[in-house]
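We treat protein structure as text, and this decision shapes the records that our systems exchange. Because each token names a local backbone shape, the row as a whole describes the fold. An entry from our holdings is shown next, in its original layout:
>
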Amino acid sequence: MISYGEPAGFCDPHHRSAGPEAPRVSVIVVSYNCKGYLDRCLASLAAHAGVDCEVVVVDNASTDGTVESLKARWPSVRWIVNRENQGFARANNQGFAVSRAPYWFVLNPDTEVRGGALEALVAFLDAEPRVAAVGPEVERPGGGLERSAGFTPTLGRELVETLLLFRLGARGTTLRGRVSGPTRVGWLSGCACLVRAEAAREVGLFDERFFMYFEDVDWCYRFARAGWSVVYLPGPRVLHHRGASVLAAPDSLLDGGAGLERFVRKHGLRFPIPVLRSLLVFKLCTRAIWLAWRGVRGDSRARLEARMFARTIPQALGLRGTAQR
């Protein structure tokens, strides 16, 4: 069951539309038990949007008082409140369904938009009519950049990632290092990317069979197969506090492996499923050990994440049912 708030504009006060004119951008934020992060995300949009936009928040049955705390504080936001957790893909599609703008900005609730970022992304899509989606640099809280773009997964690229062969210069599934200008990629992270609504309607919205993870990779893959480009744009930045909703729902980490398996099966890629599962277990084990070591050295967040990864390892062997549901 879904309840809808009243539609309303939300934009930089110096760029407010007059009358019923549609906004340039519809910002879609899916939240789940992260009201503090979401509040800061909305504040960053209010301060730095820079273009006419509306904001739609789809709440996936949060139990931390997200809607009760923030709905009155942000009355210009359109709220869609789910009584059950619908997952990332379906919840975003709910937001797309009520969006009025030609561009959709898919944004995680644990992000903060930096000044000029959204304006630069909009200007890029305006200038490049065959680009379906563009993603900004994603900044970590402690500095440096998150890996928020990359290349279509293949068996070879997954082996590069798992065995750390990218340290020897091999190309894996993620884009590493700085790039000097707009770079065509195979996928963009769904934590922050601007999408052309026309292209999305042509290829279809997020595939709702992906509960969480790989819906963005699948979407970008479909864009490319339909002749559209997907581009990573250095310069514009979004700060990502990373994993607020995942920390609230540790079991969702398994959906990363399930998502990759579903992606491989859906598109008929040459990727042995037993090898895929073995790589997943190996990555979970090595990640848990690395985080535990950091936890021993005093990183409390790493200790929490290490326990989270360790709990998922036994479940990873039963991934088949998850991936095929």
